[in-house]
């Protein structure tokens, strides 16, 4: 019997790194090891009661297929939030489309934008980073090129290192700020320059902004603020801002041409959020009090761990946003062997190598466990480092 044919893009991607982490966690849990899980960035903060109530109230006896363009009320809520948060004016009818979280929209963007048979078939991504833009580009038949994020550059890609001939062949250039995993933020001058490049060379600047609302010092900027200068699509989500990962609700904001293309494409893949989720999302985008409480919770957990890390000479290498701490690996261990050592003591962390070769030498803590778990983790780190 002949083996089933599998997509070469799927073969090339290998196992998603966090799947390997989940397997290790299950093995240790079966052995009776009590785990404190700082690995995957899945918020454990409770979803606000008003959001949950809106979800229940949105249930009817029969729910039909949701439309790809989303509820008008949701598009208006997103436009209102963007205006309040970033002082930008978006047309909810033509410049916003709700998405099934942001992951699927990020993955599928290349299917809409890239022509793999043309010369403009490059998708630029950054690493260390979230692997979904790379995988989406690969499945669309694009040539994926990664720009390294170096600490000496503030974990921003070196735009001067990209040759004009590469810009001319680029279809999509992806950025992610505040950045997963480094926590770095992008200054407005960087965003403006990249927007100018997108207009000069005719590529789409795609900005994954899932963490704009999780910050500790100053509210981060958005590529929406420079949208008049270039070809820009911004992706955001309620997953982190409102602790709604399981709801799968986000949006894309872009110019009318791209939004029209997304509205044409998305019914084919059937990824519109359910109507009751959209109604809960309206409440979420219209409220900031629960977001402030969420930031306070992450700040408290961060402040439990930082003194321990400083006492143990573990350097915080990353920025002051997102739910993550990006830390330098102490000593001569590789990031994966260091993470394995902590795992033996019940602490699940992510090796920097999971996010790309430029992540080697670092490790990531996702501040998702409870405050008490973070305090216990600090005691363990104090004892084992």
Topology, please?
Blueprint: H1 8-13, H2 17-30, E1 36-37, H3 49-57, H4 72-86, E2 96-99, H5 103-113, E3 122-127, H6 132-139, E4 143-148, H7 164-169, E5 170-176, H8 188-201, E6 204-208, E7 232-237, H9 238-241, E8 250-253, H10 256-269, H11 275-285, H12 289-311, E9 324-328, H13 335-344, E10 347-348, E11 350-351, E12 362-366, H14 371-384
Low-confidence stretches: none
Number of strands: 12
What is the level 1 CATH name of the largest domain? Alpha Beta
The fraction of residues assigned to DSSP E strands is: 5-15%
Shape: globular
Looking at CATH, which topology of the largest domain would you report?
A: Aspartate Aminotransferase, domain 2
Overall number of domains? 2
What is Rg? Answer: 21 Å
State the helical fraction.
40-55%
The neighbouring-strand order within the major sheet is: 2-8-7-6-5-3-4
- Per CATH, the superfamily of the largest domain is Type I PLP-dependent aspartate aminotransferase-like (Major domain)
- In the CATH hierarchy, the architecture of the largest domain is 3-Layer(aba) Sandwich
Main sheet makeup: 7 strands, mixed
Mean residue pLDDT = 94
Decide which structural class fits the backbone.
alpha/beta
């Amino acid at each position: 019997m002949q083996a089933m044919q599998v997509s070469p893009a799927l073969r090339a991607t290998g196992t998603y790194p966090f799947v390997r982490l989940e397997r290790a966690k299950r093995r240790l849990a079966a052995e009776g090891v009590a785990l404190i899980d700082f690995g995957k960035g899945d918020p454990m903060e409770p979803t606000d009661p008003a959001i949950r109530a809106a979800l229940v109230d949105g249930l009817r006896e029969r729910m039909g297929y949701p439309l790809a363009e989303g509820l008008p009320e949701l598009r208006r809520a997103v436009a209102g939030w963007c205006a309040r948060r970033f002082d930008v004016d978006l047309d909810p009818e033509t410049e916003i489309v709700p998405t099934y979280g942001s992951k699927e929209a990020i993955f599928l963007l290349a299917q809409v934008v890239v022509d793999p048979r043309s010369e403009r078939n490059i998708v630029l991504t950054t690493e260390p980073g979230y692997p979904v833009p790379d995988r989406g580009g690969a499945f669309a038949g694009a040539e994926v090129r990664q720009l390294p994020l170096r600490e000496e550059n503030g974990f921003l890609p070196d735009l001067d290192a990209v040759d004009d001939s590469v810009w001319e062949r680029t279809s999509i250039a992806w950025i992610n700020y505040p950045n997963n995993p480094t926590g770095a933020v992008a200054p407005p001058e960087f965003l403006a320059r990249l927007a100018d490049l997108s207009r000069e060379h005719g590529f789409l600047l795609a900005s994954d902004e899932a963490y704009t609302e999780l910050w500790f010092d100053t509210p981060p900027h958005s590529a929406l603020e420079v949208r008049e200068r270039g070809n820009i699509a911004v992706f955001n989500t309620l997953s982190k801002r409102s602790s709604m990962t399981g709801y799968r609700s986000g949006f894309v904001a872009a110019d009318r041409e791209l939004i029209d293309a997304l509205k044409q494409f998305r019914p084919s893949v059937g990824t519109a959020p359910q109507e009751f989720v959209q109604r809960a999302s309206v409440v979420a985008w219209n409220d900031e009090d629960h977001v402030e409480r969420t930031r306070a919770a992450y700040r408290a957990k961060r402040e439990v761990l930082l003194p321990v890390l400083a006492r143990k000479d573990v350097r915080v290498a990353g920025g002051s946003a997102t739910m993550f701490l990006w830390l330098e690996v102490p000593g001569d261990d590789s990031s994966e062997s260091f993470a394995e050592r902590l795992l033996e003591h019940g602490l699940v962390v992510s090796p920097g190598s999971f996010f790309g070769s430029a992540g080697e030498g670092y490790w990531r803590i996702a501040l998702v466990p409870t405050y008490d778990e973070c305090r216990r983790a600090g005691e363990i780190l104090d004892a084992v480092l």
